[in-house]
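seq:
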Amino acid sequence: MRILGIDYGDSRIGLAVSDSLGITAQPLESYRVKSDKENTEYFKRLLEKFGIEEIVLGFPLRMNGTPGTRAQKTQAFALWLEKKFRLPVVLWDERLTTKQALRILSHQKIDRKVKKQKKDQISAVIILSTYLESKRDKSHASKDH
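struct:
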């Protein structure tokens, strides 16, 4: 089962996809938000191409665990995805993913403009990776009991 990881932003959406076993996350691209029709067509093609069965969407929480200012927009996007594509959408705590992504990119010798685009992809990979790890941890815990 392949899972799509999303780092949602107003103008750009970072994307990552799991391997078919749900072990690793690979970056895809950053998608520039367009019209509803173009967004629908883009995501339809993407979901079909990779055989996506579940979506993990980074959910912006404040450090104290309460929803951040972007939470409503993110929830609206999650509902849009669920309605359009009839797939489960998991909202996943994305605290500090942007900082992690920027730390990773700070070691790369690439242009600032490229770093800005890559930041969204890497954030999506981090969101998806932590979700996949959580699923593995839960399955190991249930086997131990």
